[in-house]
Amino acid sequence: MPSYLRAADGCFRTLRETGPAPWYRRFGEAVLSWFHGAVKESSMMATGRLTGFEETLDSRIDTAGGFFIATSIEYGLGIDLTDAIAAGPELGEVERAAWVHGVLVNDLFSYRKEHFGEAGRAPDGRAPDGRANTLRVLADEYACSLQEAVDLLVEHVDAAEARFLELRADVLGAPLGARPGVREYLDALELVLPGNIVWSRTSRRYHGTGCPWTGTARTAMALHPDRTVFTPW
């Protein structure tokens, strides 16, 4: 058995033995959703079939592992929200807003890597050029420039953040918010949003080496085949 499979088997065995059974079932479902999303995205990239923004966003939420991360947060906090989630759609709606925000931020900063083909190549040898990236989809859907697509994507990011904060406040102001672990979980989930921004802006995977983000909030990004150059403005 390859070493990565042995490592995965050990991780899953530990989670199964130490996590509550209802939680572990949801964790397994989230992992399967992740794999199904990856298959769908790989098929789209191999065929060059562009989907609309909303369909691509749904696929990206799966491939970004949003709900896999959500259940992992529960495990890290030592809580099981299975009953709270089953009580209604409210927690799921908060989570989706968080993952919409996360996917869009990720796609903004990963675009250079995907556009210049550093993510690998399609089976026919062509660079993937970001087909599964929501920024690319917005540019195609609206027949606009890359900068115009960036502006549209940022509007969606702002809307997702506002929706997350609104839905989070609604849950915490309702009886659901008083259930054990809910506030603790939502506090942790809120930290994922800025954490993902910082990681995405500083990742060498996305931006190459030698051109780090300066920490300035307002920056221009110049995309080069081997690096991103951040310039304060």
DSSP helix fraction:
55-70%
* Beta-strand fraction estimate: under 5%
User: What is the number of strand segments?
Assistant: 2
Oligomer: single chain
How much is the radius of gyration in Å?
19 Å
Structural class: mainly alpha
In DSSP terms (H or I, runs of 4 or more residues), the helix count works out at: 10
| Lateral arrangement of strands in the main beta sheet | 1-2
What is the H/E string? HHHHHHHHHHEE
Biggest β-sheet: count, sense, barrel? 2 strands, antiparallel
Distance, first to last CA: 52 Å
Low-confidence stretches: 118-130
Morphology call? globular
Mean pLDDT: 85
What does this structure look like?
By secondary structure, the chain is mainly alpha-helical. It is 67% helix and 4% strand. It has 10 helices and 2 strands; from the N terminus they run ααααααααααββ. Strands 1-2 form a two-stranded antiparallel ribbon. A hairpin with a 4-residue loop joins β1 (219-223) and β2. The protein is globular, with a radius of gyration of 19 Å. Residues 118-130 have low confidence and may be disordered.
